[in-house]
Amino acid sequence: MLEKWLEFSHEVLEAKEKGKPIVALESTIISHGMPYPQNIHTAREVEAIIRENGAVPATIAILNGKIKIGLSNEELEYLGQSKDVEKASRRDIPYLLSCKKNGATTVAATMICAELAEIEVFVTGGIGGVHREAEVTMDISADLQELANTNVAVVCAGAKSILDIGLTLEYLETYGVPVVGFGTDTLPAFYSMTSPFNVNFRLDTTNEVADMIRTKWEMGLNGGVVVANPIPEEYALEESLINRVIEKALAEAKENQIGGKQVTPFLLGKVKELTEGKSLAANIALVKNNARVGALIAVSLAK
């Protein structure tokens, strides 16, 4: 039955037939995370980095009632410019498919689609999590439940800085999701290399990370793994600066009664404005860095 919904690009299909390592990529970063044309340039550069490091990229989206595993240049352009693409999480997938609508996949939805396509590694910018003031709003990203249940390793620059990182880690601990620091003892906070919080385990090579992931799944311990890879130092923003900017952005979101799916795009846009574009450069740099590490982990896992 799955064949009815999944549609592979020629490149990804060939990689599967030959047993090549594949890396999944989300599409909300293209449709909702970055402005045009930086979104398209970044998407193509990220795919190129994955190829250069020995794996095959599979950008995932929902288009015309199909889960597309690997996108053409035309499909990337469409996602980058269209205003009719919905932000798709777990709850949205059946509706978008049955109504033949178009959706860009979030971390949660990309993990689901990657597992359906038997792809073990997924590269993104930062995971969603428990939002600040979640004790009032109950705003907790579906990404966390997906990490608890879906067997995909997620390479990211930690949790997005706009979140309550401490509560996000507590949630992941409750559901047994390991948070691995790649070459770091502290959890990176997206734009910053560090945060006040420690990772669960530090591993310094992609082979070590792949061995841990494989061990987890061979033992039947379901659920994902967070591989937290710090942003390159030259692009990192100072922790105190980014916290001040986020506080201002959160206050504006509250004033404008922005909630639900709109919160993250609004906050990221406001942070870009308040940092005079530095946050966008940081976002692009960290995604590229994650692509390199994710490709190398996928290569190790495939051995």
SSE layout and pairing:
Blueprint lengths: L5 E3 L1 H9 L3 E4 L2 H6 L4 H15 L3 E8 L2 E4 L3 H9 L4 E3 L4 H6 L4 E3 L1 H10 L4 E3 L10 H4 L4 H8 L3 E4 L8 H10 L4 E4 L18 E3 L2 H13 L6 E4 L10 H17 L7 H12 L3 H25 L1
Parallel strand pairs: 1-4, 2-3, 2-7, 5-6, 7-8, 8-11, 9-10, 9-11
Antiparallel strand pairs: 3-4, 3-6
Helix pairs in contact: 3-13, 6-8, 10-13, 11-12
Describe the protein in words.
- This protein is globular.
- The chain has one domain: Indigoidine synthase fold (3-Layer(aba) Sandwich).
- The chain is built from 13 helices and eleven strands.
- By secondary structure, it is α/β, with parallel strands linked by helices.
- Helix 5 links the parallel strand 5 and strand 6.
- Strands 1, 2, 3, 4, 5, 6, 7, 8, 9, 10 and 11 form an eleven-stranded mixed β-sheet that branches.
Output the keywords.
303 residues, alpha/beta, Indigoidine synthase fold, 11-stranded mixed β-sheet, 11 strands
